[in-house]
Amino acid sequence: MSTKPNTAAVTPADRRVDPRMSTHLQAVIEDAKHGSLAFTASGFSRTGAFLQSCDTSKPMPAVGSTVQLVIHWPLQTKLRPVRVEAKVIRHTDDGIGVQFDIRA
Hints:
By secondary structure, the protein is mainly β. It has one helix spanning 12-15, and strands at 25-31, 35-42, 48-53, 66-72, 82-92, 95-99.
């Protein structure tokens, strides 16, 4: 009998520290190598987001790279954009997962 935990059934949602909100926020990655890349931020939380690429023909930052992310809130909120440093933690066909920490 193995004492090793079964990690095969663990989903990314099970590993998240903070709950994700379903959103559609504009986000821009400012990357020295790739320039400015436009995304729609969804699955947003205090510690990360999934960024769906607005142009999948452009190369995206590599997993493990650190990027500057600017999140634009809806105009009616009258909030200024937030700039955070984010780490790319995953790639998909249509976007990337990033990890960051927005402190309250």
